[in-house]
Design a protein that fits this description.
The protein is an alpha+beta fold. The protein has one domain: Alpha-Beta Plaits. Helix content is 24%, strand content 12%. It contains four helices and four strands, in the order E-H-E-E-E-H-H-H. The chain has helices spanning 15-19, 63-73, 89-92, 98-102, and strands spanning 2-4, 25-27, 32-34, 54-56. A two-stranded antiparallel ribbon has the order 1-4. The two termini are 24 Å apart. The structure holds iron/sulfur cluster and FE3-S4 cluster (F3S). FE3-S4 cluster (F3S) is lined by residues 4, 8, 11-16, 32, 49, 51, 53-54.
Length: 104
């Protein structure tokens, strides 16, 4: 599977949802997650994310995000169409430790 990691938080550009062939993104207030059981590992979302927030589970960083993606994919609603990103998304692109600071 692929996972959404820290840098999506408060950026939430949503380019990823437009390209996913199986519509396996789920939407929270500040971030999206991928449902690990639905993702078919196609990889097309990874280069589409302007925040480089999507990682394959082979990435050492992904381990930290898999449980979080799994948990919230079961709770949050499915998203299949790109909405409007936050107006201050670019200001948060690259800010470290957003999960600890801003996650709801
Ligand atoms: Fe969707 Fe493919 Fe990304 Fe998985 S890797 S979330 S199937 S676009
Ligand atoms: Fe987040 Fe990147 Fe998608 S910022 S919403 S993972 S395009």
């Amino acid at each position: 599977t692929y996972v959404v990691a820290d840098n999506c938080i408060k950026c939430k550009y949503m380019d990823c949802v437009e390209v996913c062939p199986v519509d396996c993104f789920y939407e929270g207030e500040n971030t999206l997650v991928i449902h690990p059981d639905e993702c078919i590992d196609c990889g097309v979302c990874e280069p589409e994310c302007p925040a480089e927030a999507i990682l394959p589970d082979t990435d050492p960083e992904a381990e930290n995000w898999l449980a979080m993606n799994t948990k919230y994919a079961e709770i949050w609603p499915n998203i299949t169409v790109q909405g409007t990103p936050p107006s201050d998304a670019d200001e948060f692109n690259g800010v470290k430790g957003k999960y600890a600071k801003f996650f709801n």
